[in-house]
Queue: 2 jobs
Job 1
Amino acid sequence: MHYLGIMPEAERDTSCGLHLYWDEAVTAYDFGPGHPMDPTRLALTMRLVEAFGLTTAPGVTVRSAPPAGDSTLGLVHSAEYIEAVRRVAADPTTTDLRHGLGTADNWAFAAQHTASALIAGQSVAAAEAVWNGETPHAVNFAGGLHHAMPAGASGFCVYNDPALAIARLLELGAERVAYVDVDVHHGDGVQQAFWDDPRVLTVSIHEHPSTLFPETGWSTETGGPDAPGSAANLPLHAGTGDSGWLRAFHALVPELLAAFRPQVLVSQHGADTHVEDPLAHLAVTVDAQRMIAESMHELAHRYAEGRWIATGGGGYAVVDVVPRAWTHLVATAAGHPIDPAAETPESWRAEVYRRTRQQAPLRMTDGAGPHWRDFQESGYDPADRLDQAILAARRAVYPHHGLLP
């Protein structure tokens, strides 16, 4: 593989043009001091992207889009809910528990509507640009707010930008959209939005609902009566590390995409699967997260004519994990992958210390060399909990797609 700074321009894959959606104002999505969803993680990611020269790399365009308007937000969210967000934002001392606002997870803040609509606007614009052929790939790492429901905030998420991007693709004429979510938490809001829509396949690989919010995402959740097989879920037991996570992904996702034949791939790359994440219990490294980004990229080219929209998501190790994981995502989508052994730029390390008084990681790797046993080649081990989970997911959804578990 050619890494950033090594690959001659003549050898670069020109099919990997990228629109990177960014607006400094997205950092106003800030629940306040002490909340895990610290917008510093977004700023530090963009600074690391810039420090590696990705914003000026060939084929990369940095764009900002306007906030999503009410008609766009209404593709997923109710008018009553949108008004409730505005009302609570106007007076953050109030709460609206019926709409999940001002709760223990979703604190009220003054920019709640404007910043949320701005993040949503970036993902919707990314969908439009990819569908219209302006770019094959688009990334909005500020997005990925996958828990928001049609009529309520949930799990730090106010407006569900991945669902809105998918809804916009359908409005533009897409007939098959695949959504793959590798956040440690189940992608429940996106699944709910398209539960009974056969045009959308939602796939979520996440920590087991018995040990983590939102306590959904069982393998038996496979879609509504008018869309059987439109949802696939693979819950993993706490403590699953790189090899198990990668084995699970490759045992489920490629075959489903091959059968579904999506016209567009939308992915969510929450970095909270990491072993250092304070809110969850998987044991994944940045190296495996980078490998999943590479796999999403390859799958988009193999099954979706290269059309790929990638978002961020969760991730609460603000300095050590999120910026590196999402910079690798941007670099991969741009066709300019970063050598995992590369040192983080000194200017970025100084910025990390200035903002947080923490020491930044020195390299773009955790020093892991992830590998996994291929499920098809190695076979099923009935005594292995991971393989039991994989087989349960395949048995639940594969028959709906004409596949053998």
Job 2
Amino acid sequence: MHDPDRSLGFLVNDVARLLRRNFNRRAQELELPQAQWQALAYLSRREGVKQVGLAESLEIHPMTLARLVDRLQEAGLVVRRPDPGDRRAFRLYLTAAARPLLDRMWELAAATREEAMAGLPDDRRQALIESLRHVKRNLVTTEGGGSGDEHPGKAISNAAGSV
């Protein structure tokens, strides 16, 4: 008999969902919809990414991302620059106005992470992180490299911030 409470997939999914909900509760003060703060978080990891690459990372359709980036650009948080190697493509960059917002996001993410890991000694926290990074590397290798946001040295593994 399979026990979902002992399944890596179920546990990782449940923990990710709960981390996102906890972060969302805190992030209400930012007055950004979840899709926007997720896009900013991913963009902070891969500044200069093509729109299509960001859409893949966020697992949304390119047209949905285009509208999302339009709103972020109107808010002065993101700028599109032509891709020098592809006249049809744009690369995305954060503006200076996005930096304080991202700093606050990382503070909220740290509070979320601390709440999630309360009671775990530092050595077990590090072991958990290293184990998840190992699993991630295995899966990226299996996929043949994935979408490019799987670099093991990066601090965040999903758009919920560095929770």
